[in-house]
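USER:
I wish I could look at a protein chain and see how it folds. I am handing you a single protein, as its sequence and its fold in token form. As I understand it, each token names a local backbone shape. I hope you can help me see how the letters and the tokens relate. The protein I mean follows directly.
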Amino acid sequence: MAQDEAVIGCTGELLIGTRGSAGPGEILVRVRGGSETFLAWSQEPLPRGATVLVIESRGLREVDVIAWGDPLDTLGGMSAGVD
């Protein structure tokens, strides 16, 4: 099955936590102007509710994900251009 290129690089929330190599979870991804669910595979287990980044599509509505934290959160609430 062909990869779903549109979903790669999207973030989403795990509806069902992943179990690493023991099995997939389920992710809700905002893509194509709506929200879609996919089976989500990860290297290590990730909990339900975790924000993840889709790094690869396996086709057949299955994706590989990694844990994701918004890099702007590390700014600690600082606004751009404010000293």
